Amino acid sequence: MNLLNLVMKKIVSYIVLITVCFFTVSFVEVAENIDIKALKNELKSELKPDFKYDSSNINQFTLEPKKQGSEVHVPLFSSEKYKLLFNTAGLPSDFEIQIYDKKFGSKNRKLLYAIKGSESIGKHIFSFEPEAPKAMYINYLIPASEEKNITGCIVFLMGYKIG
Q: Which of 4, 6, 17 has the alpha carbon at shortest distance from 138?
C-alpha cells in the first residue's frame, strides 16, 4: 500500500508539472527567431551518461520598461537524484535565475542556487544538482528595458537518476 501511495504521488506531481509547462508555453507566442528545440536538445546532451530526461519548461519574455519575474514550482522526490539545466542562449538581455526551497512570500525562504547573466559572459548553459531533493521554486528575473519588441526565452530541463 505504501508503494502504491508513492507511485500515485509521483504521477500526480508529474501531471502538475506537465500542466504548468503546457500553460506556460501555451499563453506565450514563441518568437520565430529562437530555435527552442535546438536549445532544448543542447541541454539533453548535458544529461548523458548519468541522467535521464524527465521534463522541460520554456519561459518566454518580451522586454518591457518594468522588471519582470516568474516562479516555477518543481516537485522532486527524495528517492532520486536530479540535475536541473538552464539554457539562456535565447535571452537578449541580462537576467537572474534563483532557486529557492520555498515559494515566494514564505518565511525563512532559503536561496539554494543563483545565476546572474552579467557574471557569466560567454556562458549560456547552467547546471544545478540539489543535494537534498525536495520541492524547489525557480525564479526568473528579467530587468527593465526601454527596447521594444525584443523577445527571449529561458529553457529549463530536468533529468534524474534513481539511487
A: 17
Whether residue 103 has pLDDT greater than 90: yes
Distance CA 79, CA 63 (A): 39
Q: Tell me the CA distances in angstroms from 38 to 12, 54, 89, 102, one per residue in order.
A: 29, 17, 10, 31
Angle at 80 between CA 60 and CA 156, to 5 degrees: 10
User: Which top CATH class is 2-162?
Assistant: mainly beta
List Cβ neighbours of 15 (8 Å cut-off, separation of 6 or more): none
Instruction: Report pLDDT for 20.
Output: 47
- Per DSSP (E only), the strands in 19-146 are 52-62, 68-74, 80-87, 96-100, 111-116, 125-128, 136-142
Look up residue 37 and give its three cell numbers. 528545440
- Predicted TM-score of the model (pTM): 0.76
What residue ranges do the domains of the chain occupy? Answer: 2-162
Q: What is the pLDDT of residues 10-60, one digit of tens each?
A: 664 555 455 444 444 433 344 456 788 999 999 999 998 999 999 999 998
Q: Which cell numbers in the block locate residue 41? A: 536538445
Residue 68's nearest CA partner among 147, 154, 143 is 143
